[in-house]
Amino acid sequence: MLQDIGDRAMGVYEYLLKGTDPRLWSYPLMGSPVNMSAILLTYIFFVLVAGPRFMANRKPFQLKEAMITYNFSMVALNAFIVYEFLMSGWATTYTWRCDAVDYSDSPQGLRMVRVAWLFLFSKFIELLDTVTLQIISYRFASPQSFPPVHVMVIMVVFDMFLSLGQVFFVLRKKHGQITFLHVFHHSFMPWTWWWGVSLAPGGIGSFHAMVNCIVHVIMYSYYGLSAAGPRFQKFLWWKKYMTAIQLVQFVMVSLHVTQYYFMDSCDYQVPLFIHLIWMYGTFFFVLFSNFWYQAYVKGKRLPKQDSKPGLNGKANGTTMVANGKHHKKGNSNGTSNGSSHNENGSAYAGKMKKS
C-alpha cells in the first residue's frame, strides 16, 4: 500500500519535472526542486527550533544599518522587477485578460523568463526577515561585544541563502511577530512559486507576482523609514493603510483570475495555476483580514507604553501619563521614568505582515 502510494507520488513528481521550462534549467535553484526544498526546510527549522534556542540566552542584535540597507535594497529590487514585468508583456503585448505563456526564445519571452526567476529568487531573499527578528537584539555596546566569528559566518550564510527578512525577526528576538501567517507565507509560498515559474513563466499567472512586487515597494519603504529611527516616525502616518493595501492586492489578484471562469475559451497552458491563484488570493485575504481585526479592531498589536525606568544612568526622556501631563521624575541613579525611544524602529516595523 505505502509502496504503491510512493510509486504514484514519484510518477507525478517525474511527470511534473518533465514539464518544466528548459529555458530555466541553467538558473540558480531551478535544476531541481530538491535544493529549494532543502533551503525552505532549513528556514523552518531555524525559525522554529534552532534560532530561538541560539538566541535564548543572548541579547537581541542591533542591526539598524543592516536593516536600513536591506529594506531599501528590497525597494529597488522590487521596483526593478515591476518594471521588467511591464516591459516583458504587461505594458507591451498582454491584453490583461487571457494571456498565454510565451515559451519561445524570442527576446520578450526570454525577458519574461528572467524576471519570473528574479521574482522567485527575491522570495528566498525575503526569508531573512524572520531570522533578523531573532538576532538584531544582541546589542553591540562596544566593538568587543560583537558576536564570535563563527556566529557572523552563520549570519552571512543565512543572509545569502535564506531570507533576510525572516532572519532579522529571529536575531532581534521578535518571536511574537513570527506567526503562522508569517512562516507559512515565507515557506510554502516560495515552494509553490518554484513550480509556477518552472512550468509557466509568464502569462495570466504572472499578474499576481507583479502586483505583489508593487505592494512590496510600498512596504519595504515603510520598513526602511521605520528602521531609520524615531525622527522618521512623522513620515509614517500611513502605517494603518498598509494592511488595507495588502487586502486590496488579494482582491485584485482574485478578481483578475476570476475572469477566466467567464471566458468562452482561454489558451493559458496551465489552468491549474488559475485555480491555485484564486484560492491563494481568497485564503490570504481571510488571513490578513483576521490580522487587521486583531491589530486595529481589538488593538492587540497597537504600540504599548513602556513605564519601566531607564538603565545605566541614562535618561529615557519625558513620558505622557494618563492625565495628559508630562512628568520628569529622576531617581537615585539619574534615570527618568519615561519611555525610551526605539532607535531601530522595531516597535513599528513588523507590525504589519508582509504579503
Automatic annotation (TrEMBL):
A motif (Di-lysine motif) lies at residues 351-355. It is a multi-pass membrane protein. Keywords: Endoplasmic reticulum, Fatty acid biosynthesis, Fatty acid metabolism, Lipid biosynthesis, Lipid metabolism, Membrane, Transferase, Transmembrane, Transmembrane helix. Residues 331-346 have a biased composition (Low complexity). Pathway: Lipid metabolism; fatty acid biosynthesis. Catalyzes the first and rate-limiting reaction of the four reactions that constitute the long-chain fatty acids elongation cycle. This endoplasmic reticulum-bound enzymatic process allows the addition of 2 carbons to the chain of long- and very long-chain fatty acids (VLCFAs) per cycle. Condensing enzyme that exhibits activity toward saturated C18 to C26 acyl-CoA substrates, with the highest activity towards C22:0 acyl-CoA. The C-terminal di-lysine motif may confer endoplasmic reticulum localization. This is Elongation of very long chain fatty acids protein 1. It comes from Salmo salar (Atlantic salmon).
